[in-house]
Automatic annotation (TrEMBL):
This is Snf7 family. Pfam families: Snf7 (PF03357). Belongs to the SNF7 family. The keyword Zinc-finger does not apply. InterPro entries: Snf7_fam. Keywords: Coiled coil. PANTHER family: CHARGED MULTIVESICULAR BODY PROTEIN, CHARGED MULTIVESICULAR BODY PROTEIN 5. Gene3D superfamilies: 6.10.250.1710. Residues 193-213 are annotated as: Disordered. Residues 28-55, 99-148 form a coiled coil. Residues 204-213 have a biased composition (Basic and acidic residues).
Amino acid sequence: MNRIFGSSASKKPKPSLQDAIASTDARVASIEVKVKKLDGELARYKEQMSKMRNGPGKNAIQQRALRTLKQKRLYESQLAQLAQQTFNMENAALTTENMRNTMATVDALQASNKEIKKQYGKINIDKIDDIHDEMEEMLERANEIQESLGRSYAVPDELDEEDLEAELDALQFEEEEEGTSYLADINKVPDFIDEPPLELSETPTHEAMKATG
């Protein structure tokens, strides 16, 4: 029966909170236009009354101005109510959006927690401890091998520092003697020369110049 007359045809979706806010804003804009129009009429009535003397004509204009002012006050009252409604709806929309974000965060945390539990279920703590023990044992063996390879041979375990210092002083003394003997050997005549070399004076003698001449 309803299908025949179309009373239950496709139902219109219920307006959302944003739709209600947009509709209220449209009503506010319409009322503001009316208030602006009334302000113009009041200004015109005020100008007329300023040019008229007291009497029936002025009283009639004054009554019109009062009715216009009363209507303006009603519109202003409606504007205040609509502004409060808009504020409440915007606050509700903001709260709803925050709740959605909160629920999305909670869902993400739950999914992450579930994944973490799943991954932790694959980890064997005892196996990790065994791996650490094996690594520690292998490192100890490696250190023992390095110490064994770096061991010195034919070196006494204990050396007297005084003996080492005395040996060092003896080596330095031998080096000094070798240096002195080397300098003395420079002026020594070789063994294969029978006669000593002749010493020449710095300036040639008269006989020598004559012989060369």
